[in-house]
Design a protein that fits this description.
The chain is of the alpha+beta class and about 475 residues long. The protein has helices spanning about 5-15, 20-40, 40-55, 65-80, 85-100, 105-120, 125-140, 145-160, 160-195, 200-210, 215-290, 295-320, 330-345, 365-385, 430-440, and strands at about 330, 355-360, 365, 395-400, 410-415, 440-450, 450-460. Helix 2 runs antiparallel to helix 10 (about 200-210), helix 4 (about 65-80) packs parallel to helix 6 and helix 14 (about 365-385) packs antiparallel against helix 15. The longest helix is centred in the middle third of the chain and has 78 residues, at about 215-290. The radius of gyration is 41 Å and the shape is elongated.
Amino acid sequence: MRPAVLLIALFNFYVLCSQSVESNVKAQWFNKALVAKALGKTDSILFYLEKVEAIADSSTIPNKLPILIQLEKAKYARSKEDVKLFLNAIKKAEMLIIRDTARTLSDELYALQAQYYFHTKEYEKALAFLHQTEEYRKIHSPFKNWKTYRLMAAIYKAQGETAKAKEFSQKSETLAEIQATLKNISETEFAPALKTHEMTQIQLENALIHNQNTTIQAQKKQLKMALVFCGIIIALLIYFLLQRNKWNRILNEKNAIIEKNLKEKELLLQEIHHRVKNNLQLISSLLSLQSRNVDDKSATLALQEGQARVQSMALIHKNLYSDNASSGLEVKDYVIQLTQQLLQTYGLNPDKIDLQLDVDPISLDVSTLVPLALIINELITNSLKYAFDQHETGKIQLSLKPTHDNQLLLRIQDNGKGFDPLQNTDGFGTKLIQALAAKLDATVNYFNQNGTLVEILIHNYKLAE
């Protein structure tokens, strides 16, 4: 059914219920205005509407016709971009609706007010009226909100809020598709009746003018149409509710499966960390046993260094297992444990070495933490072995902080003897640090600054999820 014909039919249903002679006369002129609108005779619309306004109505029965007249004038003014007439019409309609206790046409008024403020680029006012339109239509005519959302999308687009514009455009399209479905169902249901009553444009105009002679028959027909339409709406709502419950049930089942799989994955990762930790500790023990049976001091020292490296990695997996963490650790706690472990490995008195740690509270992924831990292990070990004499006290400072450009800066400094840049550049420890730094896309710099200062700027690191 064409929108203009449906509008006329719905209005006739109201007219047939009216008991006032004056209202019937006004209705005839209003019908002419609607017919002119349906036929595209825009110049005649305003003429007929003003004719209706000029007729006094003495009826005391509540009448929606004055409101409809102003709403149609506002729509006419909108199409002609007559801002003054547009504003005047919606103000009159607002005054009339305030007197109407039913407020049945409030959403049409709100929508027109929103369109006016959209035209005048007062977007916040337009959105306020659209929200009122949306709330009213959610209760009385939910699918009609496709027009509401379409205008909201246009406003958000004008404001440059593309995400919201896209969201409401999609809402509009969804509701428009539902309404189109309902329209197709309605047209299929009533196609035979429409074909038998199809008229030419002139016959339609004459029939609408004289339709008062068939009051009872028209009233029954409109009532039947309204009941069938309401039945379709109720059936669709029930269908959508049943479908939504079905979708929710399926979604809950899928979420339960995903949650179960995640728990199984976490348990598996914990078991892997536990086994890796045990294997590394076994290797550390083997290195410790081997070092006791070696008389060569350099070999013993190399075994101790290997044991320290293995222990630094085992400590990571131990903490991952203990903290039920799957992919990363808090760096500060780990560095404290690592440095204390190194003091024990080399049999040093903690009272003689002042370890000062300044580590920001960040959590790193295992892929970053393992090479970083080995680098820290090497640098602290070098300070403990070479910076101080056997009975000398010393201070080691370690800091790890993100930089302003999203990099990570590691600084380790001791107040020992310093280093000779011409010596020990080809040692295993130095090569290991360079290899690990390359893995982290890091740059390494050594300085003699009241001892040895090493700065490592890490460009590629990953935070724990």
